[in-house]
Amino acid sequence: xxxxxxxxxxxxxxxxxxxxxxxxxxxxxxxxxxxxxxxxxxxxxxxxxxxxxxxxxxxxxxxxxxxxxxxxxxxxxxxxxxxxxxxxxxxxxxxxxxxxxxxxxxxxxxxxxxxxxxxxxxxxx
Length: 125
Hints:
CATH topology of the largest domain: Arc Repressor Mutant, subunit A
CATH class of the largest domain: Mainly Alpha
Structural class: mainly alpha
Radius of gyration: 18 Å
């Protein structure tokens, strides 16, 4: 499982690990009931502390993306797609709130923001 850590991002390492695993689960790259690397193996592969990987896994368990089966390991949990969608919509809403504030502060019109969104959507297609 490929996870890329940035020491200069300002985001805690455990959070980077958690978000990348979450992303792989949501995109179905990691399948339901798939065994994840052990805490120790993941820490070794990422060259980080066991405490860091343990915290990432604990957060994933708490958020419902991963389940811990004692003496067996951590597995991808069955995810509630509605809950995931709601979480993603909340993230988008928060980012758009920041965009609108920046636009208002700089007298950038709603039409200009919509034009930018249209361009970005076309680039991604």
